[in-house]
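Data availability excerpt. The first of two example chains:
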Amino acid sequence: MFASAAWSGIAEPGDSVAGLVVAALGADRALTMLIDRSEPAQWLAALGAEGSDSDQAGGDVGQVGVTVEVIAAALERWRPRVVSRVVVGSLRSAARFEARLLTPVHPLWPEGCRDLDLHAPHALWVRGNVRAVDHPGGGIAIVGSRDATNYGEHVAMELSAGVSDRGFSVVSGGAYGIDGMAHRAALVSGGTTVALLAGGVDRLYPAAHHDLLLRIAARGALVSELPCGASPTKWRFLQRNRLIAAITRATVVVEAGHRSGSLNTAGHAAALGRPLGAVPGPVTSVTSAGCHRLLREYDATCVTTPADVVELVLGPTTDRPSLLDPPPPRSSGSVVPSSPESVLPGSAGSPMRAGAVSDDVSPEAPGVTDPSTTSGDADTPAAEAASSGAGTSAADDGAEIRVLDALTRRSRRTPSDVAVRAGLSVRAVEAALGILLLEGRVEETETGWRRSRT
């Protein structure tokens, strides 16, 4: 862990040569060679030896084009930063601010970072809830201009609150304008929000957002690939954007000028194959010129509502059959699937689908009943399912059916309450509620969820 912490300060973010040597040799061995002032030829020989043992490492060496000259130039960048007291000072500062250090071998390391390959961070310094970094429901990046208009801030607020209510985390850069509004809306909605910083997590920047960033740390997380004490720079801001794109499932640009830094985040998202959305604005607004450019030249999806944002990740809701659709006919010799996952429509890779049925599924506790649904009226889940015509065959036995059965039109219930009733994890329930909300079959009130009255 000490070596990973050291490399996070030795190499600048996105340094592919550092990424190669750490990936091939390991952080400990690479740091030892750096401290021992090994010559470039020794580095190249070590990388070549590792490459002969690993096809992946050998391919990376060839891909980066590592030569003695490249290694020599890298060593010139790294050696002045090999100061043990600086690393120790960063770790002490992290302890003072209760920040944690995540490395690629940590179980909570965000999987999206692996898509960055040699440009992935060596470590992530997290101040706040470390589990928020790789949110179970998935994260959505909402970014835009620092010089936002009232229109842009309003749209950012609506989108952020909407995706938060649907179980996603909101990820942004903590800056003025759109970023700040996205974070605030997520906090007000009671959701999870993550701010990626271009400096150490102990240096809250911009200073005017000091209180906001403290609230984010209390309810979500502040994250940086740079050690505590590191100062934000223009380069680090640009490199920070690749992390915003990598750890999220989609990126939405709300407002951006023709040369806005938000377009840099959009470019990283597109390069990583992440869905990209852009909010249109007035054709006379210079703060929307970048969004219009994304729509016109980069095949971004037009986004105007939270449902549009969720659709970027889940795909069109029309592609999923309604729960009211009759089950397909089965031949007399057919066998009812033993696993609910085998009959669920939609992509298993989506954040609200993955693990929606199999995760933490357990049989209902015998004898547990709800006093509010034992009076014999027609408001019980079973009665509602029958009266609405919803299918009750084994082929329709999915997480959404189970969540729908746990809700009534009369009572408001929290996700944790629904989870107990449905025998699912809270994560699976929140995912199913998001899908049912898109289909118009449930609605959320101030006190909880219930079935739609329509």
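And the second chain:
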Amino acid sequence: MRNILLSFFLLFAAISSALAQKLTVESFKLAGSDLTAQTQPRKDLNNRNCALIKVGLGLQGVQFEGSIMGNVENKTGEYWVYMPQGNRLLKMKHANYAPVMVTFADYGVEKLESNRTYELVVTASSGVQAEQKQKLTIRYTPSSATVLVDNKMVKGKNGVAQTTLPVGQHSFVVACDGYESEEGTVKLKASAPSNLQITLSKEATAIQQSTVAQPTVAQQPVMQTPVTNSDNISIPVKDGISIDMVRVEAGTFTMGATPEMENPEDDEKPAHQVTLTNDYYIGKYEVTQALWKAVMGNNPSRFNGDNLPVERVSWNDCQEFISKLNSITGKKFRLPTEAEWEYAARGGNKSIGYQYSGSSNLSDVAWYKDNSSSKTHAVGSKQANELSIYDMTGNVCEWCQDWYGKYSGLSQTDPAGAASGSDRVIRGGYGGITAGYCRSSYRDYGTPGGCSNAIGFRLVLSE
């Protein structure tokens, strides 16, 4: 019996020790003077040079997951990982360590660029080190607001709240009666204290998609008559939540790198004529967290708030959501095709020819790097485009139905993208991206199972 108990204890200790070990990302940055991605290139599926990530980690047996091209090269003291441009995530796994997901935006890199070399420094630790702590100072207006950090109240005085916390990521909420609350996350670093400046905005008189006043509906499939006018419909879902949609009339437009689109990428070319033969409805707003929770019963988002866009959802997650939504409503919702998305973003047959969706002044219509404070904002809080659609070039970028592929210069009718591929199309700008990537023609892509706090979606309903 003693031998059995001893064996069990040793096994338990070994498992506990393995679980305690962790991989820690020390830094991730562009290696501006390193030309390896150009001198030793590897092509992606579109015959473009990949980005190269040199992972500095002296540990054998590490596995990498993501949109990786070819085999990972195991060099002395580092791994070479080639990835197509536009990627934002890389996952590392090892049998004896907890897996770690590297979100490039957390280190100031919005997404990978072709022909560029990046350095990712990772350390392997036993997890038994002394806990490091750092000071967080939150200055807030109005001074009567309440501050919570990690769901615990932090006492403040004269609009300043201070607390000391373990190094790492923490959540915060600043709230006050009569004002819209601010929620987000802050990453404390051992090297220096962190400071936040929060100014609350007074509550808007009208509330958007997540709280449209509708009677509670049954949760079994229902065939309800939507609230409609000639160009808009509002479809009840359940628990008082509805989906506001805008009608987009069929038409012909030029898709891609048209003259008003400044500094287009190669995959936006050639510009080509597209005809959409059927009217369709598209979401007036990005899908909110309130709608997602009503359908799925959970909330995967990094930034929490009922009227914020849902994010951290993969293309596959969107398909599951749509299937459940269709069961509840009796409708046939889907993701937009890339052509439907761009036609609506440009303003359909009411287009004035703006560079961005609704204006050539980006700040009027989009939350992006210069004004977002690196977080999402309530849907519909910027100016709409010509069709009264909001946030198509900011806040979060959006999944489309299509496989990603090259454009053809030929005229097309009701295009549905590439016949097959490894990545799905992503469109629109988001809160962490610069103005140069927010034009209505800009294209991006991601693996169907990948997710990020930069990516959400909006719905389409065919007539």
